[in-house]
Automatic annotation (TrEMBL):
GO molecular function: all-trans-retinol dehydrogenase (NAD+) activity
Lineage: Eukaryota, Metazoa, Chordata, Craniata, Vertebrata
PANTHER family (UniProt xref): EPIDERMAL RETINOL DEHYDROGENASE 2, PKSB
GO CC annotation: lipid droplet
Residue ranges that the Swiss-Prot or TrEMBL entry lists as coiled coil: none
Protein name: Short chain dehydrogenase/reductase family 16C member 5
C-alpha cells in the first residue's frame, strides 16, 4: 500500500513538472529566450589557434569576456590572442598546451585554473561547452575513428550534464553542439549529396549558432535543424529503412572526395 501511494505521488509530481516544462518550451518557441551576459566571465577555449576555436574566441572577446586560449600551435594561438585584443577583449591570455596529454593540461591549468569542474561545483557557477559533431550521433562510412571520438565527447558531456542535474547544481550549464561537416579545411574534399538539406556549413554560421545557444543556455544544438528530425527518425524507423535513408541522403559517400593531409609533413 505504501509503495503504491509513493508511486502515485511520484507520478503526479513527474506529470506536473513535465506540464510546466512543456508550457515553458511552448512560450519560448514563440518568444525568444532571454540571453545571459558573459561580460567579465572567464572563457577557456581549446583549439583556439584556428578554425572555430579562433572564431569563438573573437566572439567572446566582443562580448566582454576574459578569454583564455589553449592550443598546441603557439604561433597560431598568439595570433588569435592579438586578434582577440583588437576585437575588444578586456583580458586575453594564450597558453601552449597539447590537450591530448594529461600532464600538459595540468601543467597549464596551474597557470590558469587549478581545476575546472570541482571549482564550478564549489561556486555552483559555470558553463561547459562540448563541440561534438553530427558524426557523434550517427555512424558514417569511412569515418569510424572520428565518429568514435565524437560519440565519446557527446556521451561524456551528456553524462556530466546528468550528474549536475542529479545534484541539482542549477548554476552549472551544459551545451552540446553537433554540426554537420564544417568548412574549416579538416574535411577538405568532402561533399553533400543533398546540399539543400544538409549543406557543408560555414564556420562563421556554426559559431554564431553556438554563441546564441550558450547565451540562451540550450543543452543541445544540432546544425542544421534537419538533424533533429533525422535523429527522431533514427529512433523510430526500422534499421533497414534508416540505412535506406542514409543512402538517400548520401551519408555513405560523403567521404569519397576527402583529401587526406598528413600534419607531420
Amino acid at each position: 500500500m505504501a509503495s503504491t501511494l509513493m508511486f502515485t505521488k511520484d507520478l503526479a509530481t513527474f506529470l506536473g513538472k513535465s506540464l510546466i516544462v512543456l508550457l515553458e518550451t511552448m512560450i519560448f518557441t514563440v518568444i525568444p529566450r532571454p540571453r545571459k551576459s558573459v561580460a567579465g566571465e572567464i572563457v577557456l577555449i581549446t583549439g583556439a589557434a584556428s578554425g572555430m576555436g579562433r572564431l569563438l574566441a573573437l566572439s567572446f572577446a566582443r562580448l566582454g569576456a576574459v578569454v583564455v586560449l589553449w592550443d598546441i600551435n603557439k604561433e597560431g594561438n598568439e595570433e588569435t590572442c592579438r586578434m582577440a585584443r583588437e576585437a575588444g577583449a578586456v583580458r586575453v591570455y594564450a597558453y601552449t598546451c597539447d590537450c591530448s596529454r594529461r600532464e600538459e593540461v595540468y601543467r597549464v591549468a596551474e597557470q590558469t585554473y587549478k581545476c575546472f569542474l570541482p571549482a564550478m561545483i564549489a561556486k555552483e557557477h559555470g558553463h561547459l561547452v562540448c563541440i561534438s559533431s553530427s558524426a557523434g550521433l550517427v555512424g558514417v562510412n569511412k569515418l569510424a575513428d572520428y565518429c568514435a571520438s565524437k560519440f565519446a565527447a557527446y556521451g561524456f558531456a551528456e553524462s556530466i550534464f546528468m550528474e549536475t542535474a542529479a545534484q541539482k547544481l542549477k548554476g552549472i550549464k551544459t551545451t552540446i553542439v553537433c554540426p554537420f561537416f564544417v568548412n574549416t579545411g579538416m574535411f577538405e574534399g568532402c561533399s553533400s549529396k543533398r546540399p539543400f538539406l544538409l549543406p557543408i556549413l560555414k564556420p562563421e554560421y556554426v559559431v554564431a549558432k553556438t554563441i546564441d545557444a550558450i547565451l540562451q543556455e540550450k543543452v543541445y544544438l544540432y546544425v542544421p535543424r534537419l538533424i533533429y528530425f533525422m535523429m527522431f527518425l533514427k529512433s523510430i524507423l526500422p534499421v533497414k529503412i534508416a540505412v535506406l535513408l542514409a543512402d538517400f541522403m548520401g551519408v555513405f559517400n560523403v567521404m569519397d572526395g576527402f583529401i587526406y593531409k598528413n600534419k607531420k609533413n
